[in-house]
Automatic annotation (TrEMBL):
Organism of derivation: Atopostipes suicloacalis DSM 15692
Pfam family, one: YjdM
One Gene Ontology term of the molecular function aspect: hydrolase activity
Entry protein name: Phosphonoacetate hydrolase
Alphabetical UniProt keywords: Hydrolase
Family of this protein: Belongs to the YjdM family.
Length: 113
């Protein structure tokens, strides 16, 4: 038998099915398989070209990014050791290392694989 997904609201693993609905007895949340699949697809972080980004990837910045102060990240700069953030920080959904700057948060639509 297939493993039922955890509740997207409270993360309980006690979910059960009732017809085509999945139900969480802990919080009462109800959802369908289609809603579950849509949520999984939305959770995938993609670059500007729609390629899926994974932890450890190396990406290229596609446009100049001005940072606070006088510094900036030039177009074409390589960003290494990519980490996908589970909880986005002010709309920044990836963290990576840029030579000369260290670890920095970026938005995935500003990079390409």
């Amino acid at each position: 038998m297939d493993q039922l997904p955890m509740c997207p609201k409270c993360q309980s693993d006690l979910t059960y099915t009732d017809g085509n609905l999945m139900i969480c007895p802990m919080c009462g949340h109800e959802w369908t398989q289609a809603e579950h699949e849509a949520a999984l697809e939305a959770a995938i972080v993609r670059d500007v070209n729609g390629n899926e980004l994974l932890n450890g990837d190396t990406v290229t910045v596609i446009q100049e990014i001005k940072l606070s102060g006088a510094s900036k990240i030039k177009q074409g700069t390589k960003a290494k050791k990519l980490t996908i953030l589970e909880q986005p920080y002010q709309e920044h959904d990836i963290e990576c290392t840029i030579d000369g700057l260290g670890r920095i948060y970026l938005k995935s639509f500003l990079v390409k694989k």
